Amino acid sequence: MSAVAVKKREAEKAKRMLKHEGIYDGKRRPRVEGDFVLLPVLDVKRALELGFEIRDVELPMRPERQIYKNLESVLKEKLTEEELTFLRRYDVVGDIAIIQIPPELESKKDLIVEGLLKVHPFLKVIARRGFHRGTFRVREYEVIWGDERLTTIHRENGIKLKIDLSRVFFNPRMKGERYRLANLVRNGEKILIPFAGILPYALVIARYKNVDITAVELNKDAVKLGLENIEMNRKHLKGRIELIVGDAFEVLPELGTYDRVISPTPRGVDALKLVLSKADKFLHYYDFIHESRIEEFKNYIINECNNYGKTCDVRIKRVSDFKPHVYKICADISIRKS
Ligand SMILES: C[S@@+](CC[C@H](N)C(=O)[O-])C[C@H]1O[C@@H](n2cnc3c(N)ncnc32)[C@H](O)[C@@H]1O
């Protein structure tokens, strides 16, 4: 087997030339010998024509690397089509994968873990997802592989978020929604975000816009992480965030009004009147609505606006599927004072 011998300082240039000629053997590893680097080549005759010195050496093969794009492609020979549909909707938060494994796939758990690690080799924890519980909407999890922890650093939309999934709510699927809102916001706005959690909405908006945000959150663990998240991102933020600890239903009546209010409302809570009373120009109100009730919900908002002496344009955006025929929606409300 042949290689060209070049001085160390000329190695990069030589490698580029060999690649350009199509005679560099990328399947083998180069080797350093004294002041020289031995670069594997496919065509000795051409290398000689180019003026390279040739050596006869045994250069080792690089290990075969397979790139796996998704869990489906890794497991398609091991699971049925129906089984694969159960596994499609998993999430990755930082270095934690969160997956729902139905009882009928329990016996395939090890295969699923192996598949996830092939697709996301950086994972340190794989956890099984339970349900959201209580006022703070924290999910239940069971670690099924890796470190016994549910804390991580997650990156999205140019910010970093410290998260403890065992203590706070976080939904990585709202990444696009947060970016959408950050695009709608204009510099100079005063914004109110009740139900603010660990501040994903506030931070993404403040990352891109020069605004003043007041956030309100009841869960003390979320508040602690929220404050850490402000510090962790501070040097990249264009806007300012003030975080108030407390019950939105007690805190908001004490506050003034804002250009824009964003309400990532906890499921089952009706905060429409509360947040509408605080919004001067725009309100983004999240809720869970059956598809047959979307028009009714829109009219309910328009009536509530009228009760506050406001005229509103309401657009209902379906943000994600929640369960069959029920959507997580965002009501984008533009307020024109009447
Ligand atoms: C659906 S989560 C949204 C959290 C965050 N905005 C996010 O998107 O990650 C609702 C949040 O409201 C908080 N919460 C629930 N009731 C509250 C209340 N009465 N006042 C303030 N925050 C409340 C919960 O602790 C939780 O963090």
What's a quick, concise take on this entry?
The chain has 338 residues and is of the alpha/beta class. Helices cover 28% and strands 34% of the residues.
Overview of the structural elements:
This protein is α/β, with parallel strands linked by helices and 338 residues long. The protein folds into 3 domains: 2-56, Alpha-Beta Plaits (2-Layer Sandwich); 71-149, Met-10+ protein-like domains (GMP Synthetase, Chain A, domain 3); 167-337, Vaccinia Virus protein VP39 (Rossmann fold, 3-Layer(aba) Sandwich), CATH 3.40.50.150. Helix content is 28%, strand content 34%. The chain has 11 helices and 17 strands. The chain has helices spanning 11-21, 44-49, 71-75, 81-87, 109-119, 175-184, 200-208, 220-233, 248-251, 272-276, 294-307, and strands spanning 2-7, 31-33, 36-40, 53-56, 91-93, 96-99, 125-133, 138-146, 151-156, 159-164, 190-194, 212-217, 240-245, 258-263, 279-290, 310-323, 326-337. The protein has a 7-stranded mixed β-sheet, sandwiched between helices. A 4-stranded antiparallel β-sheet has the order 2-3-1-4. It has a 4-stranded mixed β-sheet with strand order 5-6-7-8, with no helix packed on it. β7 (125-133) and β8 (138-146) form a beta hairpin. α6 (175-184) packs across α7 (200-208). The protein is elongated and about 90 Å long. The model has no long low-confidence stretch (mean pLDDT 94). Bound molecules: S-adenosylmethionine. Residues 135-137, 169-171, 174, 194-197, 200-201, 216-219, 222, 247-249, 264, 266 line the site of S-adenosylmethionine.
